Amino acid sequence: MNIRSLVLAVGGFLAIGALSPAMAMDGVVASIKPVYSLVAAVMGDTGSPELIVEGAGSPHTYSLKPSQARMLENAKLVFWIGHDLEAFLEKPLETLSHDAQVVALSKAEGLKFLELREGGTFEGHDHGHEGHDQDEHAEHEDHDAHGEEHADHDHDHEGEEHAHHHGEEIDVHIWLDPRNAAAMVQAIADALAKADPGNAETYLSNADLLTVSLSRLEDEIGEALAPVHTRSFIVFHDAYQYFEQRFGLHVAGSVTVNPEVMPGAERIAEIHAKVSEVNSVCVFSEPQFEPKILAAITEGTSTHSGTLDPLGASLEDGPNLYFTLMRNMAAEIRGCLAGEG
Predict the structure, then answer these.
(1) pTM for this predicted structure
(2) Together in a domain, 186 and 285
(3) Which residues pair with 152 in a beta bridge?
(4) Where residue 298 sits, what CATH number does that domain have?
C-alpha cells in the first residue's frame, strides 16, 4: 500500500491533524539550500528542517563543521541530492547518521536526467536527445507541456549510489528544472509522511499545492526568457543544462570544467577565443567562487558579465528560496542577454 492509499485508509484519524498540525517533527536535515527550501515548503507549519551547507558554501568544496556533525548524529531524516554532488557528506552519513533515514533525491521517481557533458565547450550537443526520464520508455516532453500527473510512489532510500543512468554519468544539478523539483517534492512528502504519519495529510497536501506553484513558475520563467533564447552565453561551470534545456537557452561553454580547480592561462585563452567565436553576449560567474578572470575572458570584446547563483547563496533560508532562486536566475540571464542594466 503506498503512502497516499494509507492516508485515505486512516483519513478519519488524520482529519484531526488537518485542523492543526500534530506535534512538530524534529531531526529533519537538508544538505543544500534548494533542497532545504523544498523540504521546508512541504513541512509547512509542522516544523523546520536544519541546513548543512549554509551561506555561500559550495557542496563541491564544503567541510563539515562540528555543530553540523552533531546535527547529523541527531537526525531522523536526511535529504540530499547524492554522492556526486555532496561527496563531503558520504562518510558522515555512514558514520554519524546510522539511525537516520537518508533520502537521495537523485533517486526520486519522475526525474528527467541529463548526461554529464565532457569538457567546457558544448558545441554540437542536441537539445532534443540529451534528456532521460527514469522510465526508459517515457517520451520526451515539449517545453510547453504542463500539467503532467505525478504517480503515487513509496520511497525507502537507504544509502546512496553514484548517479548513473544506463551506464552514463549524470549531471546532478537536477533542481534547476522545475519539473524535477516537482518530482523531488513528491519524494520529500512521501518520506516525511512515512516518518511522521501524524502529519502525513499535511505533507501530501502541501506537496500537491507546491507542484501547482512549480508549474506556474515554469510558465512564468519561460515567458520571461523567450525573447532572449537565441543568444548564447558562457557560464562559470557546467551546472545549468537543466535550466538551459527546460527554457530553450543556449549555453556555449563553461569557464572551468571542475569547479574545485580554477582555470589556468591556457583555459582562459581558450574561453576568450570561444567568446569571440560564438559571439557570446554574456559570461556569468558564481558567488561561491567569484573568479577574477572574467575581465581577462571578456577583454577586447563587447561581452557583458553577470552572476548566476544556482544554490541561492545570497538568499535567506526558507520555503520561498527555491522560487526566488529560479526567478533571480531568469532575471539575471534576461537582463544580461538583453543588454539591460
Answers:
(1) 0.80
(2) no
(3) none
(4) 3.40.50.1980
